[in-house]
């Protein structure tokens, strides 16, 4: 029961984050309907990380510590951006995401000290989520088509590679302290730069996911379209009710 409540709370929280961002986008003139149509048609893009499967309970910890931790680095930067509605939304989102990150970190620490089965489950989860999390920061700066414009307009204040390096510097020693291996043979600490250096990222996988050919792209979008279709009667009822109240007034 406790696990179900935790998952329900996370889903509810993430739905709230979506509401913040939809409202911020609406201040620029885009309607909710237009944004949903763009998502359902495949025109709009969403985070690549949402197209990977969760296989075990340890994935909840890995997602919390790695994925939400990476998101916080991105969003803390965006909370200081030049556009007020977006900035204010990010401040609230960061506060809530930090709870998810701490919860995930606690889960990984506890499981990494548990039974052999639990330790193996944690190792498997970190192995599967490490590289997709690094991809979350986007392409290398030299290959990023949008970073230059976003930085010039003050939407982003730091580059993809800078944020990715900060993430690795934070997570690599912490995961190793838990006895978890990061399966990157080139990962090492460089005393001269003070950074953890890493191996090549599989950008072919990243672009495949971005283009809709990832492990769970099709099923996630199918589920989203079905939910939209199944909820049609609710939207129609809400419109009819609003019209009726208008007539009464």
Give the SSE map.
Elements: H1 2-26, H2 32-41, H3 58-78, H4 84-112, H5 116-135, H6 147-152, H7 160-177, E1 188-190, E2 195-197, H8 203-210, H9 217-230, H10 232-248
Summarize the structure.
This protein has 249 residues and is mainly α.
How is this structure best described in words?
The chain has one domain: Up-down Bundle (Ferritin). The chain has helices at about 1-25, 30-40, 60-80, 85-110, 115-135, 145-150, 160-175, 205-210, 215-230, 230-249; strands at about 190, 195. It has ten helices and two strands; from the N terminus they run αααααααββααα. The protein is about 65% helix and about 0% strand.
The total of helices stands at 10
Task: Report the CATH topology name.
Answer: Ferritin
According to CATH, the homologous superfamily is Ferritin, core subunit, four-helix bundle
Q: Which of globular, elongated, flat, extended, rod-shaped describes the shape?
A: globular
Average predicted confidence as pLDDT = 91
Low-confidence stretches: none
| CATH architect. name | Up-down Bundle
Distance between the termini: 46 Å
The ordered H/E elements are HHHHHHHEEHHH
Helix share bin: 55-70%
